[in-house]
Write a structure and sequence with these properties.
Rossmann fold; alpha/beta; Helicase, Ruva Protein, domain 3; 2 domains
């Protein structure tokens, strides 16, 4: 079957099932199977797939029709222009998290020209920590997670993207278990209230790691924990930056104020939602 025809059929099936980007999904999956760019698909519509290529494509398409995210199907997701390996051990990086990285890079400039020591809590794929290590000169990043599988993915991404020498990795549940002091502590913690987990899209709740999504009764269990534990790991004037779920910012700010933090600020994302909260050790 010709490339143009198989793409047409695949996109039609995805559209009928209500997927929001049927043509893009169909193209990305076919590009992956053929090992070519999407530009190739546009310039070679007459290309005839081999029987094996068509079989592999139909298998991936069926998995997509069952709701599996494209990033897991192709094993990769772009974050700030870099390709990150992903699998079901890790949360798929979201564009909104780039805002946290932007703020961290800005705040890092407030410190002296020496090495910046940074913790990435709940690193997952390593999207935050690896990006910081790549973009911040003289950074040293400690990436932690409670999942051995996630840390393996993060280490592979650090190696692939050339920053393994600027990072260490640690299975860790408590910041209090970490020795030394750091300039920045960053995290995209779970922030979905437990009672709202069932409302998540099927592609999220059925495939992504629930431990990286469920934030407890009010969605702030991990935020509260990090706010309480971080001061022991921060240098004087060090910063804690947390991603939030578009709501709950005022509650997080109140917790931070009670814990003695200063210069608390809330940053909105491109949709106008409260997405990142930054607080300075008092």
């Amino acid at each position: 079957m010709q490339l143009r025809e198989i793409l047409r059929i695949a996109a039609k099936k995805l559209k009928e099932e209500g997927f929001p980007t049927p043509f893009l999904d169909a193209e990305v999956l076919l590009s992956y199977i053929l090992g070519v760019s999407r530009t190739f698909l546009y310039s070679h519509p007459e290309y005839v797939l081999t029987r094996e290529e068509q079989k592999r494509y139909e298998t991936l398409l069926m998995r997509r029709l069952l709701g599996e995210p494209v990033a897991y199907l192709v094993g990769e997701k772009e974050f700030r222009g870099r390709p990150f390996k992903v699998n079901r051990q890790v949360l798929i990086p979201r564009p909104e998290t780039e805002l946290l990285v932007d703020e961290a890079l800005t705040l890092a400039l407030h410190f002296s020209s020496g090495r910046k020591r940074i913790i990435d809590v709940g690193t997952g794929s390593g999207a935050i920590g690896v990006t910081i290590a790549a973009e911040l000169e003289r950074a040293w990043v400690l990436a932690t997670d409670i999942s051995c599988g996630a840390l393996m993915v993060a280490q592979e991404n650090a190696q692939r993207l050339g920053v393994r020498g600027k990072m260490d990795f640690l299975i860790c549940k408590e910041l209090t278990a970490i020795s030394g002091q750091f300039h920045l502590i960053l995290s995209n913690p779970p922030y979905i209230p437990s009672g709202e987990m069932e409302k998540l899209p099927a592609g999220v709740k059925n495939f992504e790691p629930l431990v990286a999504l469920d934030g407890g009764k009010n969605g702030l269990d991990m935020h509260t924990k990090l706010i309480r534990e971080a001061p022991s790991c921060l240098v004087p004037g060090g910063w804690l930056l947390l991603e939030i779920g578009g709501t709950g910012a005022n509650m997080v700010k109140e917790i931070a104020t009670d814990a003695g933090y200063t210069d608390i600020k809330i940053i909105r994302d491109f949709m106008g939602l409260e997405r990142v909260i930054a607080m300075r050790k008092g």
